[in-house]
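SEQUENCE-TO-STRUCTURE ENTRY
===========================
What this section holds: a protein sequence and its matching fold, both as plain text.
Question of interest: how does this chain fold, as expressed in C-alpha cells?
***
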Amino acid sequence: MRRGDAVEAVHRVHVATTDRVLHGENLVPFLRSAAKPIQAVPLAEAYDDLDDDELAIACASHQAEPAQLAAVRKLLARADARVDDLENGPQEGRPEGKLGHNCSGKHAGMLAACRANGWPFAGYHLPDHPLQRRIAELIGPADTAVDGCGLQTYGLPLTKAAGLLQRTPRRVAAAMRSRPELVGRLDGADVALMLARPGWLAKAGAEGLVCILSPDGVGYAFKVEDGNTRALGAAIGAVLGIGELARTELRNSLDETVGAIEAE
C-alpha cells in the first residue's frame, strides 16, 4: 500500500489451488463466512421452489441494505419464524437488531431448513443439532472453533479451502452469480470479482480469506496473513489476471487519490 511514492504498509497474501500452493504457504485458516455456500446446502436440499434472492442471502455476509434485509425476511416467512428465533446476536453499528447482523441470512436459511426437516428451532446453532451435524458432514474433517455469529467454523488447509466452492450445488452457485449484490459489500473482493467477471463464483470469510471458483472449475483460495481484507482485490487481480481488481486507489475524505494498493 503506497501513499504517494512511499510504501506505507505491506500485506503478505498466500494463494493456493486444490493441488498446489502458488504463493506463500499452505496455511490452515478458518473458513468463517467462506463456508456459507456449503452451510446453505440443507436449505437447498429442503425446497425446490427457492428464489435466487433466498439462496443468495443465505450465502451472504450482508450489509443490512434494504434489499438484503427484505431477502432475510422472505426466508423467515418461509420458515414461519420470527426475528427472535434467530440464534445470532446483534452486531454493533447495524440496524434492526439481530436481523441486521451480517450472518442473519444464513441463520434464516437454517431456520427454513429446520422447518422443512421437522428439526427444532431451539439450539439449531449448536454442533450436536441435526442441522449442524449435516453441515459438518458436508465440510468433512476439519479443525473447529466458534464463529462470530455463534455457529461452528471450520479450519482447512488452503489447498482444501481452494476446493470448497467446487462442492457448491449448481442451484446455489447460480443464485450467487445472479444476485451478487446480495452476497456482500459491492466493494468486497468476492462481489467485485463476480460483478467484473460473470461466471466466476467467490465467497469471502473474515480475516482476509476468499474462496474462488473459475468458470472452468478451477478452485482458488487467497488468505491475507495479517487478516486485512484490503489486500485481496489487488492479489486476486494480479494472480488471476483481472485488471479491474489489480489496483485499488487509496482515497481521502475529499475523494482525492492519495495512493494505491497493488500486488508485487
About this structure: The longest helix spans residues 66-79.
